[in-house]
Write a structure and sequence with these properties.
With 271 residues, the protein is of the alpha/beta class. The chain contains six helices and nine strands; from the N terminus they run βαβαβαβαβαβββαβ. The strands form two sheets. It has a seven-stranded parallel sheet with strand order 3-2-1-4-5-6-9, with helices on both faces. A two-stranded parallel sheet has the order 7-8. It is globular.
Amino acid sequence: MNRLKDKVAVFIGGGSSVGSVACQTFLEEGANVVLVDIDEKYFARTAGLREQYGEERVAAFIGACTEQAEMDAAMKFAVEKFGRVDILLNIAGFHGAGWVDEILPEQWDRAMDVTCTGSYRAILSAMPYMKAQKSGHIINFTSLGGRGNRMVAISYAGSKAACTALTRAFAMELAPYGINVTAYAPGTLNTKQFERIAEKGSIPHKMPPGGVPGMPGYKGPDLYNGQSVIRDRLVANLDEVAAALVYLASDESKFLTGDCLDMNGGILMAT
């Protein structure tokens, strides 16, 4: 406990299922948290936490990572509210759906704009504050889908892989300022307890026969068999994800930068 005492963490996409669980863990570890998302409805998941801890520990801010001005405003809000920005966690992402020749250009553009360029915008907004204090932890939420052999929509795979490369570039440039930049790439997560909220900018279109491997409702050949090599554990629980994010956000990981932490039950074993 208290590994993040008095640290200020900004969650972009903080209303997500991952953000909601991580918010509780970060608060328990002593951090003050600013949740940033695109609509008030996303914050319903953390209503109980915000009531429990009060505005002196956790705050919500409506803003989109697709707009630089809104990311600038979110960081300014965090500094005015809590005095600094120590941790930036980029969780916001966009999937899209369809085979390579079925994906709509608008879906590809949206996925890149949210998942990769959105992280870029948020980092640009947080950088001046972290540089001034000569410290900071930036964590980009990527995915096994952008790291290894998994059937997901090309928009998802491409944008997540791009975000991992973005992580390395920022890590090199920000290391002299005492700022650590890492990526976190989970496999399948257990989000059953959370209602799925439609992504902003989703474009309905006809799915290929049988659906798309890795997407809900898929009924085609079993191209992806198994979610984990760990006995009796198919998916990661969100509290395990939150614990890993706390490590990446704490001083315990000060000698770790530019790397991607894979947590996928052994489906991808990288060296």
